[in-house]
Each structure stands twice: as structure tokens, then as C-alpha cells.
Amino acid sequence: MHSKNIVIAILVLVLIGAIAFVFLNSSNDTVVVVEDTPTVEVTPEVVPEVTQDIDEAEVVTRAARGEKSIVGNSVNGTAIEAFHFGTGDTEVLMIGGTHGSYSPNTSALAREAIDYFNENSSAVPANVMLTIVPTLNPDGLALTGTAGRFNANNVDLNRNFACEWSATGMWQNQEVSGGAAAFSEPEAQALRDYVESYNPSAAIVLFSAEGKVYPSACGGAPSNESVALAATYATAAGYPAEAVFDAYAITGDMVNWMAAQGIPAISVLLSDHQNAEWSKNQAGIKAVLATYAD
Q1: Among residues 189, 190, 154, 147, which one has the least CA distance to residue 169?
Q2: Where are the domains of the chain?
Q3: Cα separations (Å) of 76 from 3, 48, 263?
Q4: In this structure, which topology does domain 60-292 adopt according to CATH?
Q5: pTM of the entire structure?
Q6: Distances (CA, A) of 149 to 58, 92, 116, 171, 188
Q7: Sign of torsion, CA 207 210 213 217?
Q8: Are 250 and 222 in contact (CB under 8 A)?
Q9: Concatenated DSSP letters of 135-169
């Protein structure tokens, strides 16, 4: 009986040892699994640092244009140049040469203005930038006579803007092409893109010939700012200021399109097609710059 108990005790001890062995091996397997599991590193999201607000960025963009920039190209690939004077954040835009060799004195006047402000940079107030596009229609300027009024696609650029646009416009008593659509012409596209990019505070657009200054409007009465701008320029230059151009209907007009963008803009019509009338227009330009210096 005693030996039977001994056998049972031995069996119990063997069973306990087997259970312990299994338990220890199971624990070791678990540890191995944990150690073999790859470590995943979580990279925190990087938020870009904002170094300047929108207003500062706009000022930097204006200053970065330098003394001259290219706003686009004509149908024939000629660069349309813009000359910049001053680095203020109030921009006055002046445009000549829309009608090429039909109104060559508008490009000549713009070139005289460029020469003057190159030599007299202090004439531009500190908080103002004056931008001059001397020839919007370089292909037309390369031609002679009335043919140069139009671009190389035979489109009147001052009928190609998105203000009451029509495929067929009027010039005096004859029909002219306004293009296949508003802004179909690369010259009009270039000016549109410039205006939409930089949002000038005012615009002076040179035409000929009547010897008058007109405010702008698109489908309504001119804004008070456009009327005041026309009066300022006209008074200084010695031109009459008119309320509205009504000699004939004009569709797709550039200056009226700028009015629709909320930009006070005026049409300055020189007295004839030959003379730049620099002294008169110098006074008008400087009067406008002084107004926007306040």
C-alpha cells in the first residue's frame, strides 16, 4: 500500500512538471512574437509656417516686377511691354497704342511719359506705382494708316472686351470685327490678365482724336470715382470733360470693361492723330498721381 502511494506521488510530480514545461514554453513563444513585431514610427504632421500675410505678399509681388515686365504677346508674337515707376501699392495704369498706326500719337505720348519718369522718378509719389503700357497693339503699329487700327486678325481690340460685347461693332459709320468672342485676341487677354492679377486703383487709356476726356461705365451711369478722375485729368490738361461718349454705340470697350471690374478708368482722346501734346498730358498724369497719393 505504501509503495502504491509512492507511485501515485511520483505520477503527480511528473504531471505537474509537464504542465509547468508547457506553460513556460507558451510564455516564451508569446515573448518572441512581441519582440518580432515591427515598430511603426508615427511622424507628426508638418504644418507649413506662414511667413507673410496677403497684403505683404501683394506688395512683394508688385516690387518684384522691376522696371519693365512683359504682359503678353501680340498675334504675331511681339512682346507687349509694361514699364513700372515706383513701388507703392496704389497702382495707376496707363495704356497707349490700342489702335496702332491709326493713333500713333498715343504710343508716342506713352513713350514720352516713360522717358520723363525715367529721368524724374521722384515725380511718382512714394505710395504709388505708375505702370505704362505704351503699345497694346504692336502689330497694328507696324502697319500704316487705318489698317493699323486693327490687330493682325483684323479685330478692333477696343471691341474685344467683355462689356456689352458683340461680334460686330461700330467705328464711326462702319462695321468692325469685335472678334470671335470677348477676349478672343491675345492682346486683350494680356491686358485682362494683368488687370485681374494686380487690380490697379485707376486707369488712363489713350485714344485719338477728339480732344476730350470721358469717364467709363458698363451698362449704366459712370461711377463717381470715374467722373472725378476724368474731371481731374481734364482740368489739369486743359481738355473738356464729357459725361458720356454718344457719337455712336460702342460695344466691347476696354475702358468700360475696367469700370465693370470696379476700377475708375478714363478715355483720354488726344486732339488729332499726330501730336502727342506732351505738356498738356504731363499735367493730367501728374494730377492723377497726386490724387492717388492721398
Answers
A1: 154
A2: 60-292
A3: 119, 43, 30
A4: Aminopeptidase (3.40.630)
A5: 0.79
A6: 35, 25, 27, 10, 14
A7: negative
A8: no
A9: -S-HHHHTS-GGGGGS-TTS--GGG-SSSS--SEE
Cell numbers for 264: 475708375
Within a 10 A sphere around the Cβ of 37, how many other Cβ atoms?
A: 8
Give just the sign of the alpha carbon dihedral 117, 119, 120, 121.
positive
Per-residue pLDDT of 122-174, as tens digits, reads: 999 999 999 999 999 999 999 988 999 999 999 999 999 999 999 999 999 99
88 burial class (0-12, 13-18, 19+ CB within 10 angstroms)? buried
3-state secondary structure of 103: coil
Closest by CA position to 92, among listed 131, 133, 134, 66: 131
Average pLDDT, the chain: 85
Q: Which helix (H) or strand (E) holds 113?
A: helix 104-119
The helix/strand/coil state of 254 is: helix
